[in-house]
């Protein structure tokens, strides 16, 4: 049963349940030092036990409030492009954005944002949260709603639903574009070296790849479809696995530019010439695609605009406005360079 205003849990109730003073509870709520991690965890647990909210109800943040952007990692070109868009959007909107990553905020909890971390954000007065390429649990989403913290995600790992506002690219269309390009060159044995199987963007790109093959009447070979992570090392592993097949592919569609870097490295290690003996297509069109040898044919996704639109969406939600769309997808396009050619 929902609490009425007169029965709302108090600071004193939290203190009693946690076995600490009200001053200690106040320190935890406001993110001040002088409290051990064990005590902080006990206070947060007590808040959940008595159903305490740090405010008298969901806040109505000022349009110029401070917002948080949480990245899975900042040590890759993808994140830098998205962050550039977030910062440009913040400047245009006249707001402040605090940027962090799991490496700095939750090194022991990379797979989950954490309810306690979200509660800390609210206590520090954040108006909204933008989460990039990370998974959110139902409890974490509900906590944001309960605390009045606006929330949007970029390229979520979660399946898309109406409880989560998301911004991404037309990954399915990009998968079609990449595969149709290789088919138009004459390739019929096309491998897919994708990202994590649970990633929504990775699955959408795979579905686009399969759609293009089916439309062209090319039989889909499950042995040519691999999942791993969006890192060069994963691209190397998947390429060696694909090229060890009895009937190896003549082209590989990589799920990201970083994966494509690993594909190119593995090809060089085997003495294969790209594109004469193996064609390679990436996905992202980050600056690394221009400086590979040869320059990488890739699917351009508007990462800068994705960051800018995502931040604007979080601000709209914080103002109580409806977003332009629950799930925004910005258009992709194929950029042809020198890593693709007709098969031998």
From TrEMBL:
Residues 9-54 form the HTH lacI-type domain. SUPFAM superfamilies: lambda repressor-like DNA-binding domains (SSF47413), Periplasmic binding protein-like I (SSF53822). InterPro entries: HTH_LacI, LacI/GalR-like_sensor, Lambda_DNA-bd_dom_sf, Peripla_BP_I. GO terms for molecular function: DNA binding. Pfam families: LacI, Peripla_BP_3. The keyword Transmembrane does not apply. Keywords: DNA-binding, Transcription, Transcription regulation. This is LacI family DNA-binding transcriptional regulator. The lineage of its organism: Bacteria, Bacillati, Actinomycetota, Actinomycetes, Streptosporangiales.
């Amino acid at each position: 049963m929902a609490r009425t205003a007169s029965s709302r849990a108090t600071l004193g109730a939290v203190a009693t349940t946690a076995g600490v003073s009200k001053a200690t509870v106040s320190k935890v709520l406001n993110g001040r030092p002088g409290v051990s991690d064990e005590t902080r965890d006990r206070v947060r647990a007590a808040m959940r036990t008595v159903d305490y909210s740090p405010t008298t109800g969901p806040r109505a943040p000022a349009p110029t409030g401070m917002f948080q952007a949480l990245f899975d990692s900042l040590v890759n070109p993808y994140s830098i492009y998205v962050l550039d868009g977030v910062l440009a959007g913040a400047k245009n909107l006249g707001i402040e954005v605090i940027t962090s990553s799991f490496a700095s905020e939750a090194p022991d909890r990379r797979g989950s944002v954490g309810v306690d971390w979200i509660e800390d954000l609210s206590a520090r007065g954040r108006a909204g949260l933008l989460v990039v390429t990370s998974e959110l649990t139902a409890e974490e989403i509900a906590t944001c709603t309960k605390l009045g913290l606006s929330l949007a995600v970029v390229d979520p790992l979660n399946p898309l639903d109406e409880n989560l506002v998301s911004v991404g690219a037309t990954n399915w269309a990009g998968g079609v574009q990449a595969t149709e390009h290789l088919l138009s060159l004459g390739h019929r044995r096309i491998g897919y070296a994708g990202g994590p199987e649970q990633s929504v963007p990775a699955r959408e790109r795979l579905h686009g790849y399969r759609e293009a093959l089916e439309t062209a009447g090319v039989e889909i070979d499950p042995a040519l479809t691999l999942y791993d992570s969006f890192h060069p090392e994963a691209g190397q592993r998947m390429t060696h696995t694909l090229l060890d097949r009895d009937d190896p592919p003549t082209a590989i569609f990589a799920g990201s530019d970083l994966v494509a870097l690993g594909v190119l490295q593995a090809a060089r290690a085997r003495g294969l010439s790209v594109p004469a003996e193996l064609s390679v297509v990436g996905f992202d069109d980050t600056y690394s695609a221009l400086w590979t040898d040869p320059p990488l044919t890739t699917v351009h996704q508007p990462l800068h605009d994705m960051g800018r639109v995502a931040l604007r969406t979080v601000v709209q939600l914080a103002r109580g406005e409806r977003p332009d769309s629950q799930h925004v997808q910005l258009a992709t396009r194929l950029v042809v360079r020198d890593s693709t050619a007709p098969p031998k």
